[in-house]
Write a structure and sequence with these properties.
GO molecular function: acid-thiol ligase activity
InterPro entries: AMP-bd_C, AMP-bd_C_sf, AMP-binding_CS, AMP-dep_synth/lig_dom, ANL_N_sf, ATP-dep_AMP-bd_enzyme
Protein name: O-succinylbenzoate--CoA ligase
CATH superfamily of the largest domain: ANL, N-terminal domain
CATH topology of the largest domain: Rossmann fold
Low-confidence stretches: none
Keywords: Ligase
Number of helices: 11
Radius of gyration: 21 Å
Strand content: 25-35%
Organism: Amnibacterium setariae
CATH architecture of the largest domain: 3-Layer(aba) Sandwich
Number of strands: 23
Largest sheet: 7 strands, mixed
Length: 376
Amino acid sequence: MRELAVVPDAPETLVPAIRAALDGTGAAVLPLAAGAVPPEVPDRVPLPVAVVVATSGTSGTPKAVAVSSGALLASAAATESALGGPGEWVLALPGHYIAGVQVIVRAVAAGTEPVPIAPGPFTARALADAVLALPPERRRYTALVPTQLHRVVEAVEAGDADVRAAVHALDAVLIGGGRLPAELADRAARTGIAVRRTYGASETAGGCVYDGAPLAGVEVRVVDGEVQLSGPTLAEGYLGDADRTAAAFLQEPGRRWYRTGDAGEWDGERLTVTGRLDDVVITGGEKVSLGLVERAVQGIPGLGQAIVVRGADPEWGEVPVVVTTAPVDLAAVREVVGAGLGRAAAPRRLVVVPEIPLLPSGKPDRRALQALAARR
C-alpha cells in the first residue's frame, strides 16, 4: 500500500507530485479542483496506483478512478508513437481531469516540463502565448475540448495572426471530452489546425482511440451495442467500490475489458461512437445527465410536462434542449437549472410546441422530440 495525497490543481504543485507518483518516490495523487470538497477515499491505496481521478460519471454518482503508473505511462508511450515522437506539451486543461493529468504524464515521460496557459478562463490568446513560448526545434502538442477548439477557430477566422501562428506551430491538437461537431472539424481543418480526435475515459487513462483507431496495445469490441475497451491503459478500478468495479471491468481469461456505456460500431479497424447507452450529453467537456436536467426543469412552475433532449451545438458539442408547450423565458430556466446542477447543465435552447408527441404507451416520443429540436 502507498499513501494517497490530495494535491491542489495548480501546475506548480501538481506537476512535481505526479512526477514523484510515477517514479515511486512520492505518494499517489488525487488532484483536486480549487474549492472542491475531497471525495471520501482511503488515505492509502494499492501500490500500483499513481493517480486517483474523482469524477461524477454519467449518473452523477461520485467515483474515484484509481489509475496505475503503468497504465498512465503505457498511454503516454502509445500517444507518443501515434503522434510521431516526443515533444513539448501545453497544459490547457484542468489537471483534476484525466485529460489534464495525461498532458502532464506525457511531458514527464518525454523529459520535458508541461507549459500551462495563463490562469483564468481559457482564451485563444492564452493558448497562443504558451505555444509560441515553446522551443521551435521540438515537436509541440496540446489537448483541448471542443469548446476550446471552437474559440481558437473563431480567433483564427477573425484574423488573429498570433493565434494562427500558434496553431500552425502545433504538430497535433488532441480533441476529446465530447463529440466534435462535423462543422467545427471542417472549420478547424480549413484554418490549418492538426486535429486528432480522441476517445477514452478516466477508466482507460484518457484517450486510447485516435481518429477511430485504437492506440498500440488497445483492443476494441462492441458487445450488445456497447463499446468495450481492453489493454495496458485500463484503470485498476474504483476505490472503495468493489461492486461497481466488478460491473464496469470484466475479467476474462487472459484479458480484462472496460464497459464504456457508449454505443458504437466496430468494423475491425475503426471505431465509430454513436452516443450513450443512457441519456447523457458531454457539453464543453463536462458530462450532464439529461434526466437530472429534466427533473429540475419540471420543478419550475408551469413546466411539469417539459421534456429535455440532446441538441447539437457548434461551440459546446451537445447541449440540453427544453421542449415544452408553455412559453417561458429561457434565461429563467437556465438560472434555476444552473443553480442546482451547475452551469454546464443549464439548457441552451428552448423549443415551444403545440403538444408533446407521445408513443402508444403514453410516454413522450423522445426520438420525435429530438428530431423536432434539431429542426428548430
